[in-house]
Amino acid sequence: QVQLQESGPGLVKPSETLSLTCTVSGGSMSSFYWSWIRQSPGTGVDWIGYVFYTGSTTYNPSFRSRVSVSVDTSKSQFFLKLSAVTAADTAVYFCARGRHHDSGPVYDFWGQGTLVTVSS
Amino acid sequence: AIQMTQSPSSFSASTGDRVAITCRATQAISSYLAWYQQKPGKAPKLLIYGASILQSGVPSRFNGSGSGTDFTLTISCLQSEDFATYYCQQYYTYPPTFGGGTNVDFK
Fold first, then answer.
1. How far apart are CA A78 and CA A39, in angstroms?
2. What was the pLDDT predicted at A60?
3. Candidate from B42, B55, B97 with C-beta closest to A47
4. What does the pLDDT look like over A88-108, one tens digit per residue?
5. Which phi and psi angles does A42 have, rounded to 5°?
6. With contacts defined as CB-CB under 8 Å, which chain B residues touch A44?
């Protein structure tokens, strides 16, 4: 059974960079789209971006100038960096496995989510 | 980005009820729609993709239908474990976008 686990600071100061790691176990990273998705009461569920196992990336234009997603398949990990954070970036951040179906990915395995609060 | 609108945003139901949740896209998305179930404090769980294809392990009382802009998730006989929030997600084009959610609670 594939499992994903987010890790990283739960508190980030405004204007700093949010950094999270997702560790994948129980399956290969090959052929999947490793994604970051966040959820907040204010904005609902927002797709941030993905990294394919090859390292290629696609980002949500809403975050494009601030976001970076990368992968280290040798460690079965992928990473999120979101710079210049504000209080609006306070949310539960999920990592998820995207499985391609026709036009795009559907998310069949998720981490438990980690709350990141932006506050001084 | 394509906007997804779910209705209703919440409603109350009883065990055994047949319930339907609708999702509308601001432009046609063919059948590139998924449904997820989320319980408090948990991650979303994939129920249906391709508008009507049941994810492995999901009970057959869940049914998805629709294409184009209008979609429906039907639960034929609501069970206690089905009280949750349901989200639709389009994957026709990037970025993937989610609906605002429909909360189904106990009447």
1. 19
2. 96
3. B97
4. 999 999 999 999 888 789 999
5. -75, -40
6. 98-101
